[in-house]
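dude i think i finally got it to work??
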Amino acid sequence: MAHESSFRDVSIRSGDITVRRIHLDDLWACLRAGYQDFNARPSFGVFLAVIYPLFAVLVTVLARGDGLLHLLFPVIAGLALVGPVVSVALFEMSRRRELGLDLGWRATFGFVHSASFAPILALSIVMVTLYVGWLFTAQSLYVGLFGADPPASLGDLWARLWSTRAGAAFVIYGCALGAIFAFATLAVSVIAFPLLLDRPTTAVTAMGTSIRAVASNLAVMTAWGLIVALLLAAGTLLLLVGLAAVLPILGHATWHLYRRVVAA
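look at this
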């Protein structure tokens, strides 16, 4: 504990962190390493037990809530914006496996008692703010195109989206705006959360380093974002069972992506 305190007394600045260039082959290597971490400490059942109740609650609230049905897809799609927050424990698990430490869930969540927790919490608030901003944007777009009248049912919503010009505009503009929010989330967080677990630094420095890493590897990081989006979509289509495996594998893989981008 004394070592931990002294380690955290020195805050690393952005200029002290070296960002490396990576290639597409590195992404596949990260996914393989992520699968190996998942296979070493399977968390499928844990994520399955969490995802199904959460999804059921969201669908129930949106389906029965007054005027919320049109936000069903934005709410589910936007969960990817807070995915890095949920994945912090997975990053820590990969870090501990790398060091040959205990991989139990209690040990994995030990970071909440360390000096890393405060900047991680601050960055998590930024992620939640982006998520709320996305939902506000989706709501504003819907009202701007359809007015304040909410859909009466899922069938009504489907008809509005796919049989009207306003619906086509909502889908196109919604996807474009969603891509902007998703890329902003990727740029701010993809390196930041693992960095905060690994080194003594601030949330601002971690976000700056993450943005710098994405800018230095723009094409490869964009490809990573597309891979994440496609795997999450595939997992969702498989009645969420696939998502319970995809989420932890991607979380572990992101740790290995951090290791390749940021020099030790």
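The CA atoms of residues 87 and 145 lie 35 Å apart.
im so relieved honestly
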